[in-house]
Amino acid sequence: MNRQDLMDRLLDLGARSVRLSANLPRTDGGRHVALQMVRAATSAGANYSEACGAESRKDFSHKLQIVIKELRETYHWLRLIARAEIVKTGRLERITGDVNEVIAILVSSVNTLKRSPQPDAQQRAIFDRKAQVTRESNIANRRSQLEYRKLQTADRTSQIRA
């Protein structure tokens, strides 16, 4: 599953939690559970979007763990809704299953990040050098394009004068 698929899945979970909250009773307890569940479910998607812009592997892993915490909280509120029999359990099975699936995917991702080796200094130096060469090449290409345009302009100017 790629990042966009996971982002869409989290967005769907947030939307489904909003729709579910609209069906909860307008009692003090119903409103409390609805607000808490919606906050946790929608926060998971927002935090995942933030994680996708992480500045490092460590930052990415940390932000994924926050998403997992929010999803576990969402799962708690869904279980409370079922236990209190606010909504029929059958209506909650699909969303509860989806929350658990996404948690499992993210836990696996965090574990993979922790197990996979960090690039060593030599690998980072090679990568940095390749990036520098690419930047220099792009600059040289841009300069060549500008010089070519200047020549074309000069040729057109001389043709007009002739």
Structural overview:
- By secondary structure, the protein is mainly alpha-helical.
- Helix content is 86%, strand content 0%.
- It is built from 5 helices and no strands.
- The protein has helices spanning 3-22, 28-51, 57-83, 89-115, 121-161.
- Helix 3 (57-83) runs antiparallel to helix 4 (89-115).
- The radius of gyration is 26 Å and the shape is elongated.
Summary keywords:
162 residues, 86% helix, de novo design (two linked rop proteins), 5 helices, mainly alpha, 2 domains
For the record, the count of structural domains works out to 2
Distance between the termini: 65 Å
Number of helices: 5
Q: What structural class should be given to the helix and strand makeup? A: mainly alpha
Return the average pLDDT rounded to an integer.
89
The biggest beta sheet reads:
none
Which superfamily, in CATH terms, is the homologous superfamily of the largest domain? 23S rRNA-intervening sequence
